[in-house]
Specification:
Layout: H1 3-7, H2 12-24, E1 34-40, H3 54-62, E2 64-66, H4 78-87, H5 91-94, E3 100-102, E4 109-111, H6 124-130, E5 135-138, H7 166-175, E6 187-192, H8 196-202, H9 207-229, E7 236-241, E8 247-249, E9 254-256, E10 271-273, E11 277-280, H10 291-306, E12 317-321, E13 340-344, E14 349-351, E15 361-363, E16 377-380, E17 388-390, H11 398-406, H12 419-423
Parallel strand pairs: 1-6, 1-7, 2-17, 5-6, 9-14
Antiparallel strand pairs: 2-16, 3-4, 7-16, 8-15, 10-11, 11-13, 12-13
Helix pairs in contact: 7-9
This protein binds zinc ion.
Zinc ion binds at residues 42, 78, 196, 200, 364.
């Protein structure tokens, strides 16, 4: 559908009328709104300036962009963020509080497993399925977990396998658009594991990351060409985003827990994770009457040591009882979050001691206030205005945006119902004119 010839009319009234026509016919291919969400893992905001990215640029110029990037949730890790995008919930509420964690109460370990008990909230594919709509996921973290009416049907939700070429992922998604109209999925969610891999291995400033960015842009181009070939590029809502950014970290910027020994000795088996989030679950033993008091003492002693000027890089780590963490992190209201959390400075590492040293590489997971942790957000399609820039926002807002486009009743979530007005045009609830 050639929308440009409609909106380029020189007559204001006709322009408005034709805008209505564009919106009204925005569902021609399937008689319904369709959303294709594409996530590029670890696509740090700014990567799009590393090299020519003509396809991402096209989405930006013809769509709506978060001008200074998409703000991830804390911790800025892959699983918590993909599931926040899908549910509109902060990790404390959707349960995936880190990629890997130990439940402080039960001692059970979560390590990206698919047991539904870990995965709280209602992700978009479940919302869609529960309301009789068709959703398709391609490697989106959490989508293989059976939930509600969603059973991760074979063919609509392939088993996670990073060896599947990116081209095959794109082509499979596109093939669903060739189905009979009433079988075309309403919602498709596609995942690429780059440029995260290159960013981890080489750090964000390495030329191999630039290559990974070019490769991802190429895949976006493949998707755009597939949509254009089917004459539905202006009808499908394409949302391009990432889960978090990436920053360099090096051995010389490390804080060693054993360096705090003059103030407080912390056994390695109390530490569930070192960095970028320090997670401490003290095991005081049954003879300690007031573990909460002991935890507070431990935090005070650690911070005393770290601010003493005598611990190497100590000024880059601050330790909190979880309930005292800054409210903006929304990271306390879950029994899965360990009692003590250390906020590690941007690009710093934490280790127990000086063994197993290694060179520089890249990582993420740090405070979401750091610009380096931001990713991208671009929306293209009938409900996204062309060439519009919006201020940065947290990715928990996206659930409501997609629900609004698809005309789904959203489950309760941490996003704002009003946010959709900031980012979507107002042509009816489901893309058609009312
Ligand atoms: Zn990663």
């Amino acid at each position: 559908m050639a929308t440009t010839k409609h909106v380029s009319s020189p007559k204001p009234f006709l322009t408005f009328l034709n805008l209505l026509i564009v919106a009204a016919t925005a569902t021609t291919a399937s008689n319904k709104p369709v959303v294709l969400m594409i996530s590029c893992d670890g696509f740090r905001f700014g990567y799009q300036f590393k090299t020519d990215t003509p396809n991402i640029d096209l989405l930006i110029s013809e769509g709506t962009e978060a001008k200074l990037g998409l703000i991830p949730v804390f911790p800025t890790m892959t699983f918590p963020n993909h599931y926040s995008i899908a549910t509109g919930l902060y990790p404390a509420y959707h349960g995936i509080i880190m990629n890997k964690f130990t439940d402080p109460i039960t001692g059970e370990v979560f390590n990206k497993g698919l047991d539904p008990k870990w995965w709280l909230g209602e992700p978009l594919w479940v919302t869609a399925a529960n309301q009789g709509r068709k959703a398709l996921t391609y490697f989106w973290p959490g989508s293989e977990v059976p939930k509600g009416s969603w059973t991760c049907p074979k063919g609509l939700c392939p088993h996670f396998n990073l060896s599947v070429p990116f081209e095959e992922r794109v082509d499979t998604i596109l093939s669903y658009l060739d189905l009979p109209k009433d079988e075309i999925p309403d919602l498709m969610m596609l995942y690429f594991d780059e440029p995260d891999g290159a960013g981890h291995n080489y750090g964000p400033d390495d030329p191999r990351v630039t290559n990974a960015v070019a490769r991802v842009d190429n895949m976006i181009g493949r998707a755009i060409q597939g949509l254009k070939k089917r004459e539905i590029f202006d009808e499908v809502h394409v949302i391009l985003l990432g889960d978090h950014g990436m920053v360099t970290n090096c051995d010389k910027k490390t804080i060693y827990i054993d360096d705090l020994a003059d103030w407080i000795k912390i056994p390695a088996d109390w530490i569930n994770a070192y960095s970028p989030v320090l997670a401490i679950n003290p095991r005081w033993g049954k003879y300690v009457e007031n573990p909460a008091e002991k935890n507070a003492e431990l935090v005070a002693k650690m911070n005393e040591a770290l601010s003493s000027g005598k611990v190497e890089n100590g000024e880059f780590l601050q330790v909190y009882l979880k309930e005292k963490l800054p409210k903006r992190l929304h990271y306390s209201d879950s029994s899965r979050i360990p009692p003590i959390v250390g906020m590690v400075g941007e690009g710093l590492l934490v280790r127990q001691n000086r063994t197993n040293a290694h060179e520089c590489y890249g990582d993420h997971g740090y405070d979401n206030k750091y610009f380096s942790m931001r990713s991208i957000f671009i929306g293209h399609g009938p409900r996204f205005r062309r060439g519009k820039k919006v201020p940065s926002f947290e990715n928990v807002q996206i659930y409501n945006v997609v629900a609004e486009i698809l005309g789904l009743l959203p489950a309760s979530n941490n996003g704002s119902a009003l946010f959709t007005n900031n980012i979507l045009s107002q042509f009816g609830k489901t893309g058609e004119v009312k």
